[in-house]
Amino acid sequence: MTIRVVIADDQAVVRAGFRTILESEPDIEIAGEAADGAAAVRIATRLRPDLVLMDVRMPVMDGIAATAELAGLAVENPITVLVVTTFDLDEYVFDALRGGAQGFLLKDIEPDQLVEAVRMVASGQGLVAPAVTRRLIAEFARTTGRTRRPGPPPGLTGRERDTLALLARGLSNLEIARTLAVSVSTVKTHVAGLLSKIGCRDRVQAVIYAYEHGVVEPGG
Question: The Response regulatory domain covers which part of the protein (predicted)?
Fold first, then answer.
């Protein structure tokens, strides 16, 4: 099945680079491009791609607002968004994930990692680059004013709680399976179960939930 992608970035050279990398893959097609967030919303709404590769800092409408327009919780038919930005913009990670982004990567990612990320996020697996996960944890530790909420619902099993904690540290399904000494299919079952119980749409939202509810502690 072909993955249809819209690339949104205000730099033409970046769009061209992403297009070159992704179009070389037989299962990925570039459906369109946008140079600002407002155009990204219009184009993605019209074309309904499988995924939007979204920059953060763009004119007219930034990538955070565009992400919320396309993938926010209030959107009836959300479009999958994978945010790609530079390392010095990591203060936007939390807002991007809150806005509905299902992945967050850095622009210095290797080409093969970008391709893998597109495939993973398009298939419904949220993804946050390990380096970004560490910075996200540091943000939770540093920022004041975010009220910690009560722990997760008591309905979570011990395995689901363990899975949530490992997921919150940025581990993939395969890495979680190895850590817990179970099969990948078992991990997928745990993830599906815990997402349903905590009311999160995807594993990226579950990462935020885990830190907000004390399942894992920043720096722990």
Answer: 4-122
